[in-house]
Amino acid sequence: MEFFTETLSSLNNILSNQSGILLIIIIILALGFDYINGFHDAANSIATIVTTRVLTPFQAVLWAAVFNFAAYFISLYIIGEFKIGNTIAKSVNESFISLEVIFAGLIAAIIWNLLTWKLGIPSSSSHTLIGGFIGAALAHAGGFTIDGVDVIVYSKVIPIFLFIFGAPFLGMILAYFITVAIMWICRNQNHYKCEKWFKRLQLVSSAMFSLGHGGNDAQKVMGIIGAAVIYYHIHVDMDPEYLAQGVDTFKVFVEHWWWVPLASFLFIGLGTLSGGWKIVKTMGSKITKVTPLEGVAAETAGAVALYVTEHLGIPVSTTHTITGSIIGVGVTKRLSAVRWGVTINLLWAWILTIPVSAVMAMMVYYIISLVL
Questions:
Q1: Residue 206, helix vs strand vs coil
Q2: How far apart are CA 145 and CA 138, in angstroms?
């Protein structure tokens, strides 16, 4: 009860000034983006399980949504921290962050996410968010380096860029070897019995991937909200807990704004429940035809890749990861089993997402700066 009382009191104080109102708007927008991320990336978790007819589309999104939310408890009680959220919050130098920067970045990310969803392009919601944040910060600062200080925290951002290619490659390699191993183990088994078992195992592999999806993507929104809250407490109300020398501001944010992580995981689950049928079609059938055995291999490989990168605190795209895994499965049959034309188009979407989002965020920031 004391938690709720403190939270309501804090919200009342925040709403008493203009910056506080903008902070609340940012939180609402960020959770909206989280919801969009859920239905934009729903296909990542359920494409193979739907196309192999293990579950109906509704059953599949319900299954994935439950495990998206369950990832909150894994992150909080088993991992014990939100490393990816911390990485996102600190990807831009704090000196060049403002509430207007975060607002502009979110608007750009939402526009690009809705556009790619409408076109059925499985682009990365993660990189859209990061691109928007970086682009708005650069517009605010007026360059990449100001008075010898870098606007972008390259130690955080470079691994994110590298894993545009690293995540799908890791997923592809893992999926290839998992598929080969499964085929060797089952080489003398009855095909019909194996098919039945792999349909059941797809429930497990899909749940594993959904846990990875929730744990990875919900934290990115949490990180953006964290950056906004930290800015507010340092520059607006000058909270001594955030101003103390050597304090981990993100840790303080998580402790006091405990409901933000909970809401972030809840909203991505609700978004997944809304589905994303256009991208299901692309992921489940256009790259390569997927059987239950291959679905288990792809989802298991994707889940392992997400768990490894989450442990390292590197935000990666769940879209890129599962796409690479599906390609790895296809390659085990023959190279021509993969529709490389579709794959190349996806690759271009991945490469362009960050720069396009960044440019859009710059434009949005310039418009906002004229209005506010």
A1: helix
A2: 9
